[in-house]
Amino acid sequence: MTKIKRNNGCAKKGQGQMQPICYTNCAQCMPKDKAAKKFIIRNIVETAAFRDISEASVFDAFVPSKLFVKLHYCVSCAIHSTVVKNHSGPKRTQHPHPNLDLWVLPNDFRQSPCTELST
User: Fold this and answer.
1) Closest CA to 25 of 57, 81, 60, 73
2) Could you tell me which residues come within 8 angstroms of residue 90 by beta carbon, excluding any fewer than 6 positions away?
3) Rounded to whole angstroms, how far apart are CA atoms 87 and 20?
4) Could you give the dihedral angle defined by the CA atoms of residues 53, 56, 58 and 63, in that order, rounded to the nearest 10 degrees?
5) Which residue has the higher pLDDT, 83 or 60?
6) What totals of helices (H) and strands (E) does the chain contain, helices first?
7) Contact (CB, 8 A) for 64 and 44
8) Is the pLDDT of residue 1 over 80?
9) pLDDT at residue 22, rounded to an integer
10) What is the C-alpha to C-alpha distance for residues 59 and 81, in angstroms, rounded to an integer?
11) Per DSSP, what are the bridge partners of residue 69?
12) What pLDDT sits at residue 69?
């Protein structure tokens, strides 16, 4: 069978074996670096009840507390719940160069320094 991903779907980069975690959706135990991660910040109080609580509150500025949740999905559950999107074969292997913007200069800087500007 052909090898699809160069890193075999893991992002450990020389760290050895990663600790297994239980995924959020399907509860299977797999390595932590193989998971698709999603971080959710949400108010504990919903918006409809927030107005009622702020009116009934003694304090002037009522700041609701927030709920911080990090979700771990396996690859199949992440695709099914559209956390990540699947790509066709040629698009899967194309990776843009991360420092490509550093090499592109505007047209003003591309002129030769020897040419004189006419004013």
Assistant:
1) 73
2) none
3) 27
4) 20
5) 83
6) 4, 4
7) yes
8) no
9) 94
10) 41
11) 40
12) 93
> Residue 97 — pLDDT band, cuts 50, 70, 90?
low
Q: Pick the closest to residue 30 from 68, 71, 75, 87 (CA basis).
A: 75
Q: How far is CA 116 from CA 5, 33, 87, 112, 113, in A?
A: 52, 56, 50, 9, 8
Residues 6+ apart with CB under 8 A from 93: none
Specify the residue for token string 């505007």.
106
pLDDT tops 90 at residue 86: no
CA–CA separation, 19 vs 41, rounded Å? 25
Quick one: the chain helix, strand, coil %, rounded to 5?
25, 20, 55
Strand residue runs (E) in the chain: 20-22, 29-31, 36-43, 66-73
| Tokens (6 digits) for 72 | 């771990």
Q: pLDDT tens for residues 41-77? A: 999 988 888 888 888 888 877 788 899 999 999 988 9
Contact 73, 83 (CB under 8 A): yes
Read off the tokens for 3.
Answer: 């090898």
